[in-house]
């Protein structure tokens, strides 16, 4: 967190942006400050795939196309997933943008708007227990 404060001070960012950066940082790392890529780099390929499948278990169990894949293909697909964190009111992608990826909602709520700003649907992630 100290590095973030130094960065924001050095860049002379406005307070509203500093607040958003702190909110993002807290939400993204949730008091877990470790370098995931360093840890993943130490693991063997097979162990890295096993860890990834375990981490993505909820996604695999809720997305039908994943649950129907053979384990070796599933491991390869999950190895290409990248986690993203968005804050309230962030724009994930704008209407009319050519897509180059697919999004899966792991938690929270996402709304879809027309170019004129009318909300056409909302996705809400709910864990079934």
UniProtKB/TrEMBL annotation:
Gene3D superfamilies: Helix hairpin bin, Jelly Rolls. Residues 65-113 form the Cyclic nucleotide-binding domain. It comes from the Eukaryota. It holds the Pfam family cNMP_binding. PROSITE patterns: CNMP_BINDING_1, CNMP_BINDING_3. InterPro entries: cNMP-bd_CS, cNMP-bd_dom, cNMP-bd_dom_sf, K/Na_HCN_channel, RmlC-like_jellyroll. PANTHER family: CYCLIC NUCLEOTIDE-GATED CATION CHANNEL SUBUNIT A-LIKE PROTEIN (PTHR45689:SF14), I[[H]] CHANNEL, ISOFORM E (PTHR45689). This is Cyclic nucleotide-binding domain-containing protein. It comes from Cryptolaemus montrouzieri. The lineage of its organism: Eukaryota, Metazoa, Ecdysozoa, Arthropoda, Hexapoda.
């Amino acid at each position: 967190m100290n590095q973030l404060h130094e960065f924001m001070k050095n860049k002379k960012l406005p307070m509203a942006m500093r607040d958003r950066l702190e909110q993002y940082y807290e939400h993204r790392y949730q008091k877990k400050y470790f370098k995931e890529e360093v840890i993943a780099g130490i693991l063997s390929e097979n162990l890295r795939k096993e860890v990834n499948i375990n981490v993505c278990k909820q996604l695999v169990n809720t997305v039908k196309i994943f649950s129907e894949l053979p384990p070796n293909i599933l491991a390869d697909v999950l190895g290409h997933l990248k986690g993203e964190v968005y804050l309230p009111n962030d724009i994930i992608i704008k209407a009319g943008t050519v897509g180059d990826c697919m999004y899966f909602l792991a938690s929270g709520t996402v709304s879809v708007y027309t170019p004129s700003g009318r909300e056409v649907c909302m996705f809400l992630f709910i864990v079934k227990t």
